[in-house]
Amino acid sequence: MWFVFGGKPLRFSLREFHIITGLSCSQIPSENEIEEHMNLDSISMWKRLFGADNLNIDVPQVIAMLQDSYLSDWKKLPLALIVILDGIVVCPDKHLKLTLEYVEMLNDIDFFLTYPWGRESFLQTYARLGPPASSAEVSIGDPIKELRIRLMQQNAACYGFLLPLQLLAFETIPLLLSKIPSFDDFTNFFEYTGGKLSETILHYESIIETESDPELTVQSILYYPLDLIHMDFSWEDDVQDEKVEYLESLICGGYEFEAYDFFGGDASIHPLTSNKKTVKEEVNMKEEAQVNKKLVKKEVNVKKKVWVKKLGQCPRQPKAIDNLKKDIFEKLDSMNAASPR
Q1: Residues 52 and 166 occupy one common structural domain
Q2: Whole-angstrom Cα distance, residue 19 to residue 145?
């Protein structure tokens, strides 16, 4: 999967997913091999963990089980693993229902821990980011058109494991990382307190501002350690794309990409621009108006004092002086009222 950010290409593939998460992304075993480790001839793992009558179990229910002080010790590790898997790594939907096949694989913990969950997780994540696929229940006429409609929505529910995509952006776009408050704070997950975990760390305006920043740099391909060279990140239905190969050759050759290198796309929406400059201009205008108001007020007060002094030097005609004073002060007050606010 390729993105374009600020006119620079950025790759998010199974290779990047493995580098960021550390999850195994090797080839998925055959169904026969998986079944060998399920021990289907004995009592199923599902029945041993949840009983024969509980056929619909979700992640919150399992978490509640783990909080039970009377829970059998042998159940704790399998339940914790299935919470992490179905609740985070391979999250299928908002209902967080447990996957029967995954639960049965807990019969062999060693096999479960070495299973390529990274590849399973990537597939689940890509299903929400890429063009939708047709199924027996849903027929998709034009997948690209459906994807375009998704991308034009203000909000979208994305399941799978999206954290690696966010971490990829921070790793490959240093300027974006600098927009996060206290980006150099390395406090780990367990040391956070209070409401910090729900804090918004990056705002929409900051992303748009970063994309148009002249100092923007993007590491288009996340380079990996030498020990990954021999790992198999291929797919059974891989198709060689000459355009992708040419793009990768340009990246490796150090070509400096610009926005005009990438044409097409959806032109039906307005270009995204940051409104930060507008806000700044508005603040400056308000500050300038306040300064002008203070200057006018000061000038009015000075003129009032001058006229009071002049009136004091006039022959004593109280009524005439009061009328003149009233007219002058009304004119000065109107100047003050007409000053910018």
Answers
A1: yes
A2: 32
